[in-house]
Design goal:
Elements lengths: L1 E4 L12 H16 L2 H6 L5 H10 L17 H14 L1 H5 L2 H13 L2 H12 L4 E4 L14 E4 L8 E4 L13 E4 L3
Parallel strand pairs: 2-5
Antiparallel strand pairs: 1-5, 3-4
Helix pairs in contact: 1-4
């Protein structure tokens, strides 16, 4: 997994309790429901709504407490997502990979990467993925390549490939890319 980060200066609310998270989710759901059908019908991407979601602090709900997060339990996170999905299913789908990768960072990343990713998310940053590809015999057949630039004496790399499933990547600050 390679993480490519586009740092954007943001600020986000720090949510202090499950009750506060649910309250904020209900407020946002009421906002997001307005125009949801039109956005979907007209295939308009919800950029303003996703920015609002980031600023709300809801995308930081699973950041571990030792990094300053709420470390919300999974069932409460599911309730938050359910509230958002009832208002606009497209918006609720976007942070799916965000939460999957926050858990991956929690479980397998080194301390320095954890600190960087969790600090970014607490500030309103978003994580998405570029994983799946078409054409392989199995999900493990990855043709995307990460290669050093041959004529450079630096740590400059080129990422080359096509991804099939990338939900949320257009909104991401950090993109988790599966490559060889």
């Amino acid at each position: 997994m390679t993480a490519v980060s586009q740092a954007r200066v943001r600020s986000a609310v720090r949510i202090g309790s499950e009750a506060e998270a649910l309250s904020i989710a209900r407020e946002l759901a009421a906002e997001f429901a307005v125009g949801a059908a039109e956005r979907d019908r007209e295939r308009r991407l919800p950029h303003a709504e996703i920015d609002r979601l980031s600023q709300s602090g809801l995308l930081a709900l699973t950041v571990p407490a030792r990094f300053g997060g709420l470390d919300l339990r999974p069932s409460a996170l599911a309730e938050v997502v359910s509230i958002l999905a009832a208002a606009d299913a497209s918006i609720a789908q976007i942070p799916h990979s965000h939460f999957v990768y926050l858990n991956l960072v929690r479980l397998s990343a080194g301390e320095v990467l954890q600190e960087r990713i969790f600090a970014d998310v607490l500030a309103g940053g978003r994580v998405a993925n570029a994983q799946s590809e078409r054409g392989g015999k199995t999900i493990a057949d990855i043709s995307t390549r990460l290669s050093p630039v041959a004529d450079r004496a630096s740590t400059l790399f080129v990422l080359d490939g096509e991804k099939f499933y990338c939900t949320g990547s257009l909104f991401a600050d950090t993109l988790a890319v599966l490559a060889r």
